[in-house]
Amino acid sequence: MKALYILFGTLSLILGIIGVFLPLLPTTPFLLLTAALYVRSSPRLYHWLLHQKYLGNYIRNFRENKAIPLRAKIISISLIWITILNCIFFIAPYWWLKILLLLIAIGTSYHILSFKTLK
């Protein structure tokens, strides 16, 4: 079972890292999942994850404060809307797809804004 936890934790970590750069893929939930899987499988990997310079901050801030830094909120929401609007106006050929993309942008923005802001 430990090997599966490590495997899925590593996959979740990779998705979380990709999410830093890809606006529609959330970073924090994948990193929280990685932490949960690593704590059940390998204390060494869990310790390594929490003490990473950038990734560890995501996990610690969210676990301790249930909050997202203002800079991260601004960047996330800006990238989401830039990407979605680009798709709506230049890529999506069908009206139902445009509406779906708009609803995704609204939903993810609401989700991000529903968390407290870390100062």
UniProtKB/TrEMBL annotation:
Entry keyword annotation includes Membrane: yes
Presence of the UniProt keyword RNA-binding in the record: no
Transmembrane spans: 6-39, 70-91, 97-115
Cited Pfam families: DUF454 (PF04304)
Keywords on record: Membrane, Transmembrane, Transmembrane helix
InterPro entries documented for this protein: DUF454 (IPR007401)
Protein name: Inner membrane protein YbaN
Source organism per UniProt: Bacteroides clarus YIT 12056
